[in-house]
Amino acid sequence: MDLTQLQLLTELEPVVASNLDRHLATAKEWHPHDYVPWDEGRNFAALGGVDWDPEQSRLSQVAKVAMITNLLTEDNLPSYHRTISEHFSRDGAWGTWVGRWTAEENRHGIAMRDYLVVTRGVDPVALEQDRMVHMTRGVHAPDDFAGVLDQVIYVTIQELATRISHRATGRVCGDPVADRMLARIAADENLHMIFYRSVAAAAFDIAPDQTMESVTKIIKSFAMPGSGMPNWRRNGVLMVKHGIYDLVQHQDEVLNPTLRSWNVFDRTDFTARGERAREELGEYMDKLRRDVVRFEEQRARLLAREAAKAEGKDPARV
């Protein structure tokens, strides 16, 4: 028989409490203003200065797209807070964690926006317009994302994916200040991932079949929380093409290590129900491996054609 949501929350509360203590002992205090080159700032036209012009940006197109996408994703924190607090609890260790996690996540958007505005990396007017659209839409979990297990599994994967995206973005910015800032943000995301991954590991021990079914469902339907933001598809294609976050990373750096951490394919505590969910996940991972091979081949051909075109060669011969 499945545990109810209240039973799961109650059974997992000591695990949340111990991991909250570990997190608070491990996390380092930092301040967004320390990661922004303020001496590069100047007034815009409203205060007698000069408004943004594309020539003012030192960022490549890939870096601009990645920074905007990552920042708008962070901006939707109110939606994430609402969703998580609805499925967790506002009391006890659960409530303390939700508040702490929200406060830490809020620093990310502050630092990234200040950096982009001060360095004039992107158009601040367009950025604000996109923020308004994205936050107005909010983020809504699929109807079948029901309860604490689905949320814990989802954020485990999402936090790790976000960490990877921030680190890759820092590398393509070509600016040591941006790289340092995004490395700091990525370190937060990694600690958040460890917290959620540890809670999920405990859920496997408490309710193995239920947790296995949740893992299979979430992995098969996973989408980053920024989906639906303005220009999501177009920007996503550019980010995938240049390795900010792609199918290879999703398999090799997110899903595989997370599933190994939970010992998913070697557990012996499932009933027939859990075994069915594990078999379904195994079939999905086999398909993903085939998809990754095709993806890498297609991307290599695309990049080769673009390189040939840039050199004045006939792309059709590549």
Automatic annotation (TrEMBL):
Cofactor descriptive note: Binds 2 iron ions per subunit.
One cellular-component annotation, GO: cytosol
Keywords for the protein's UniProt record, in alphabetical order: Coiled coil, Fatty acid biosynthesis, Fatty acid metabolism, Iron, Lipid biosynthesis, Lipid metabolism, Metal-binding, Oxidoreductase
Entry keyword Iron: yes
Residues that hold Fe cation 2 according to the record: E105, E159, E189, H192
Amino acids binding Fe cation 1: E74, E105, H108, E189
Coiled coil: 278-313
Pfam families from the UniProt entry: FA_desaturase_2
The protein's required cofactors: Fe cation; Fe(2+)
Taxonomic superkingdom: Bacteria
Family: Belongs to the fatty acid desaturase type 2 family.
Protein name (Swiss-Prot/TrEMBL): Acyl-ACP desaturase
Protein's organism: Nocardia vermiculata
